Amino acid sequence: MLFENFGLSLVFGIFTTVATLACMYKLTVMWQPYEERKRVVVEDHGHH
């Protein structure tokens, strides 16, 4: 029983970690193009 609970908690912990990393990666990937676009807009503004 104890070993079974340990196995479940271990799997749950790994799943939670993977889910958190996936969310962070997705946010980073979504955020980077926005940062790039913002910088390009500022640079274009400076030229005019």
Count structural domains. Answer: 1
Helix proportion: over 70%
| Class computed from helices, strands and strand pairing | mainly alpha
Contiguous helical run count: 1
- The CA-CA distance between the termini, in Å, is 71 Å
Uncertain runs: none
Give the helices and strands as they follow along the chain: H
Average pLDDT metric:
84
Label the overall shape: rod-shaped
The share of residues in extended strands comes to under 5%
Main sheet attributes: strand count, strand direction, barrel closure: none
Record field, number of beta strands: 0
Radius of gyration (Å): 21 Å
Keywords: Membrane, Transmembrane, Transmembrane helix
Outline the secondary-structure elements.
Elements: H1 2-47
In short:
The protein is mainly α.
Task: Explain what you see.
By secondary structure, this protein is an all-alpha fold. It has one domain (1-47). It has one helix and no strands. The model has no long low-confidence stretch (mean pLDDT 84).
Keywords:
mainly alpha, 0% strand, 48 residues
